[in-house]
């Protein structure tokens, strides 16, 4: 209280006039800690709301000492194989196994049996050797 009096003696008088219950924590009837904690929690929830929505598709797969970020929604992995070859890499397969989800919707339609058969549907005749 002496520090407050050094700054402005009127403040000390005002605090005594309104009573301890209005300003001193020991005499407070309301626990302000809950209010402050609740506000902090609400602020953190607002900040992390976007991240929580992503967690269904984003996985971190640890392979030995290396870590790989796998995004199933965008079909990307930090190893590069998933997006380059449009085939599931081992890390994406691990993420799908963790989710207990089928892998068919995640690889390119180029690798389906139907497309493979269509590729060889048309006969391809060998060309003659022009050097002879």
Automatic annotation (TrEMBL):
Keyword annotations of the record: Metal-binding, Zinc, Zinc-finger
GO molecular function terms attached to this record: zinc ion binding
Domain SWIM-type: 68-100
Pfam families hit by this protein: SWIM
UniProt protein name: Uncharacterized protein LOC104217797
Organism: Nicotiana sylvestris
Organism taxonomic ancestry: Eukaryota, Viridiplantae, Streptophyta, Embryophyta, Tracheophyta
């Amino acid at each position: 209280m002496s520090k407050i009096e050094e700054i402005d003696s009127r403040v000390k008088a005002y605090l005594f006039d309104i009573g301890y219950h209005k300003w001193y924590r020991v005499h407070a009837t309301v626990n302000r800690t809950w209010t402050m904690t609740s506000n902090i929690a609400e602020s953190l929830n607002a900040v992390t709301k976007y991240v929580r929505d992503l967690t269904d598709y984003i996985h971190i797969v640890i392979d030995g000492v290396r870590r790989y970020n796998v995004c199933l929604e965008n079909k990307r992995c930090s190893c590069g194989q998933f997006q380059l070859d449009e085939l599931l890499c081992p890390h994406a397969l691990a993420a799908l196994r963790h989710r207990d989800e089928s892998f068919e919707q995640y690889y390119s339609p180029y690798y389906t049996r139907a497309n493979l058969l269509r590729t060889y549907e048309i006969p391809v005749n060998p060309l003659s050797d022009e050097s002879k």
